[in-house]
Design brief:
Layout lengths: L2 E6 L14 E4 L2 E3 L5 H7 L8 E3 L5 H4 L2 H10 L6 E5 L3 H10 L13 E5 L4 E4 L2 E8 L5 E7 L4 E4 L16 E5 L7 H6 L5 H10 L4 E5 L8 H11 L3 E2 L6 E3 L1
Parallel strand pairs: 3-4, 4-5, 5-6, 10-11, 11-12, 12-13
Antiparallel strand pairs: 1-2, 1-14, 2-3, 7-8, 8-9, 9-10
Length: 247
């Protein structure tokens, strides 16, 4: 069994602190690293378990916790490499933080940081194969397909539907559901999906289970999105922050 833990399930515009920004932990991988992810990784004892981080795109709600996470690893005296996979542009952002004086690599015993920036990512981490798929957002966004001997899982980041991900077949789908079906045109305008569209995609991908995430709470409540998705795809869950599943 592999642990799937939702560290942050809120969209960029989510109001309040009940849901942090996007971040999902899977076994020893982290997908996106929104604000607050570092503290939650430390609280759950997951920081040392991390082997690789995959960033879907460079919007702040998906990576604003990344530098804090790296600094936390320095403080914890991590002694093995960390790999980060991202669309192009991440190194420049990390260098900008470092230029402010919070260094990651001044001390001789600091861990090695390996950053791979590409729109075509293929990686293998402890028996898990991860491949990227470019999705339709307002900036370059990479969805990630994770394959193990036991399951296939796809994580969307942000995407407008229909997307190229609909050509996949998976066991588990983690799909953004920023808006409800009533806001379909708004979702399309801003490169996002509705809860209905996430559920429709789960059917097309023949998923066993759908996790909706990246929910907003301006126009509809998160629970309304969950109910709406369940009307289309019954085995839908909107996880609470810090909720964990074994897959």
């Amino acid at each position: 069994m592999t642990s799937l833990i939702f560290l942050g399930t809120g969209a960029g515009g989510f109001r309040g602190s009940s849901r942090f920004k996007s971040s999902v932990f899977l076994g020893d991988l982290l997908f996106d690293c929104g604000a607050g992810a570092a503290g939650r990784l430390e609280d759950l004892g997951l920081l040392e378990r991390l082997e690789a981080i995959f960033i879907t795109h460079l919007h702040s709600d998906h990576l604003s916790g990344l530098y804090d996470t790296l600094v936390a690893m320095v403080v914890a005296k991590r002694n093995r490499p960390l790999k980060i996979y991202s669309p192009p542009g991440l190194s420049a952002l990390l260098n900008a933080y470092a230029a402010l004086g919070n260094k990651l690599s001044d001390e001789p015993n600091n861990f090695e940081l390996k950053i791979y920036e590409s729109q075509d990512i293929r990686a293998e981490v402890n028996g898990k194969r991860v491949e990227s798929l470019k999705l339709d957002h307002v900036v370059t966004n990479l969805g990630f397909l994770v394959e193990t001997p036991s399951f296939r899982l796809f994580y969307t980041g942000d995407t407008r539907e229909p997307s190229d991900a609909q050509s996949l077949k998976v066991d588990y789908l983690i799909h953004e559901a920023t808006f409800s079906g009533k806001q379909r045109e708004l979702a399309k305008k801003y490169g996002h999906s509705t809860s209905t569209e996430a559920a429709e995609t789960a059917i097309i991908l023949k998923a066993k289970k759908l996790f909706i995430t990246h929910v907003d709470n301006h126009l509809d409540t998160p629970s309304e999105k969950e109910v709406e998705a369940q009307q289309v795809f019954q085995d839908t869950v909107l996880p609470d922050d810090l909720e964990a599943f074994n897959i």
